[in-house]
Amino acid sequence: MLKVVVFIKQVPDTSSKAGVNPDGTIDRARAKRMLNNFDRYALQKAIEIKRSVGAEVTCVTMGPPPAIEVLVEGLEHGADYGILLTDKRLAASDTLATAYALHKVVGYIGQVDIILTGLQTTDGDTAQVGPQIAERLDLPQISYCESLTITGKTAKARRVVEGGFQNVETAMPLLITVANSATPLGHKRFIEVAQVKEMLRTPEERARRIKSVSLDDVGADAARTGLVGSPTVVGKTWKLGEVGGSCKVFEGEAVETEVARLLESLAADSRNIAEMLHG
Amino acid sequence: MKRIEYDVLIVGGGIAGLTAAHRLVDAAKTAGTPLRIAVVEKAKNFGAHVLSGAVSNPRSVKKLFPDYETNGFPLEGKCAESHLTLLGAQRAKDMPFAPPEMNKTGYLILSLSNVCAWMAENLVEKTKDTAVAVDLYNGFAAQDILYSGQRVTGVRVDDTGAPEQDNCYAKITIFADKGLLSRDLIEKFNLAQSNQTYAVGVKEIWETDQDFSGKVWHTLGYPLMDGNFGGGFIYGLKDKKLAIGMVAGLDSENPNLQPPQILQAMKKTPFVQQMLKGGKLARYGASIIPEAGWFAMPKELAVDGAMIAGDAAGTMDIKGFSGVDKAMESAMIAADVAFGALQKNDISKAALAAYQEALLDGWVGQELKASRYYRHAFHENKALFSDYLPVVLKGLDKGCMMSGGVKAFFSGPGGLISGGLNLLKLMGGGGSGELRLPEDRTCPKPKHNAVPLAEPEGFAKNSVYLTPDMVFYAHTHYHHGNDHIKEFDAAVCKKCIARFEAGNNPPPCVGDCTADVHSVLAKDGAKSHQMALENCVQCRTCEIVCPEKNIRVNPALHGSGPDFRGL
What we know:
A: Rossmann fold, 2 domains, 9-stranded mixed sheet, B: FAD/NAD(P)-binding domain, globular
């Protein structure tokens, strides 16, 4: 059976108002937490592989202890195992340090056929960690993957490129970053959610399915992670303000008339905006 | 594959469902017995589909959480100042005499959605390191009731097609679903007595400049001047927030109630304008209220393997707007009986019937019985409000309520006195015979001629919104392919549209919609019914007022719907 690893991350909930600390960093303690939206596409790909050709899916995340929530979420969606890499020394890791730590987790797991990651995170927005892991592991990588076909130990993928798409084919093991134009994550199934709830209540089973590991467990050098291992310097962060607006509804007439009115209104609005911008 | 089975399955994570769950956990912990409980809730998060006033008598909260003042229970405040206010287009004045049930001093001011969210979270903490297991299935809607012969064995919550994957089984199922699914149970076992009388409530949360915490107003008058039952409410919450809403009876002859616009009209009055000045709309939502009480409760509240509690059982008492406390009490009794039945290993209808007995013999039954004609009193004496109230309010707007009162009196003393006496008699419980209430759907009249409202002057536009604008503040999200409202026959809708439009009215589904879902589409000279389901706040008004019973609102799947957090 194929072994699939999905890297996922817990990020501040984009729909809640995350505060900004006086030093410019995000106030993560106050923010509500969620699974990084981009990772949902990667998780979906893993579940699709599992349901089509059969695979053992392991979700891996790095973060403080509450990040275990996204592993449980992954399991509820149908993943088999979860690994949380958590260590105080990881705090303030940039992409270089993060990719270093995460590639060590792959070594810890052992033999892996496919590594899936999201495109990027909603809190960092770098899109660098996936490709960096592939480089560190010296694996072929398919970035911006939209659709995927698995035959034996070969992966055929369609990837998004500027102005179109590209079909590529490579042998496993490999790393794939999944584009957000791929299939969105499906809904959880009742049976899987119920089984995960039961599993969480059984300590031995829980320990077997969800593992929490430290830098030492995965054999990573602490000096290459965290703030000391991160050459990136964060400059200034500031709040851009809030979005608001009001909507106008066109109704009561035939659709054609309403569309004409809508277009007229949009044209008027764009004239106003143009005037506003160019005086 | 092993089937998923619990001791107790609770359908609906509203105040009744979560109260039952808490009570069961408490009972099992005290007795030291293991117990497996599941709660299925259609909303993505607990509380997201819960909307209520809410100013509640503290008795039930105190019974369930004796330490509610210190245990983190989310209170919005305690009522320190209670008003029953006559609202005119220009002025407002407290009524010189108010029925005692309208004095809310000392009552709890709640955001029921916040309460439910807290109760769900607290429930999980409560069971840590105990033999009691509570599994919360938010985002899973109960879609069908499962039976084994005549015994309820659970509900279907998923649709993969494999029964062992989709079904949630239980020894006892408690329906606390506001009727969304339990109506099927009531129909199957023929449990209905009278029809239910519903009202629709629309509500907004405002962040205001001024602090109104602890203050409660119930308003009568503007803009509901046509004799239809209803009124407004304004509750001051903590953190400079204000809950403001309007409730209108659906047993109205007017097929074009436009509930959101009624609320907008109320907000235009100077009395409300001065409260909202400088404020900001935070959230909008709508919900229905089963108001009929005693006569509309199901004949039996238990069948083999199942019980019905809260609004699903019609425990709301319109006298004093006592809904939350009675729903909680019914759920606590249901939970106690369910726990006892499990201990004795007897889940038959006969064993569960002790629930109904205890509920009706207790204060819930006594109060509901005493007020059994209360709502009907208003239905029967509509003229009192349509003929006399506007005259009184006109006097009030001119600066003297007394003069209005005197004028109203002499405009028809006979009707006022006999109507008034009849109203008071019925409100006090002095009626006789069983009531058979009309179905709300039979009330709207195609030719109803609504009296145009006198518009208050000088209102600030920023506190008044279009319905589509307000719907934005309900934060609705639906999954791809959602079709939770079923229209059975398009031809029936076409005829209904023609009938109502001939009377210069929209059909009731359009006229009474709270979220701009229903509309009439004109195309190629033909008119048809269409729905913008992505707006829906799941109040179910359309189903209740559809004259042809041509609409059914099913629970939306995959956690779809509005987000009422804070309402």
